Amino acid sequence: MFIYLNKTCYNGLYRVNKSGLFNVPMGKYTNPVILDEDNLRACSKFLRNVTIKQNSFVHCNPQKDQFYYLDPPYHETFSNYDGNGFKGKEHEKLAEFCNKINAKKGFFMLSNSDTPFIRELYKGYNTEIISAARFISCKANGRNKQNELIIRNY
Q1: 3-class SS at 137?
Q2: In CA terms, which of 3, 58, 112, 138 is 20 to 30 Å from 73?
Q3: What's the confidence (pLDDT) of residue 39?
Q4: What's the pTM value of the predicted model, to 2 decimals?
Q5: 40 and 79 belong to one structural domain
Q6: Angstrom distance (rounded) from CA 118 to CA 125
Q7: Last-in-domain residue among 36, 52, 68
């Protein structure tokens, strides 16, 4: 069901409403590839001995040599993907989590908006500016390139 929704909804976006129910409209696809059997089997083989955990970062205990990729709702953009929102305080908690990863000698890579607030939270870490196209905006003129930050502790 998840693969079907991801391949047929608007731009592959996953979002839920305040009740926790998936609420992304259908995309406009002529012939979406829903079952790419070769790709699914290759991914299955690659991930055979990998543990993937889904949890809020506040419940994670960073470990040495573990890698954490963090892609939060971006600062000063739409942030209500789960009904709870993700505002300044949540970004501060996430920065604290990254500091814990760093202290435990783990590795993290985080993507976020290029805003003064985010730059201040991650001052001292390796920061790279990238230009990324926006495809999610409901307004065509809102789908332009914007600067984002890739922040790493390695």
Answers
A1: coil
A2: 3
A3: 92
A4: 0.69
A5: no
A6: 11
A7: 52
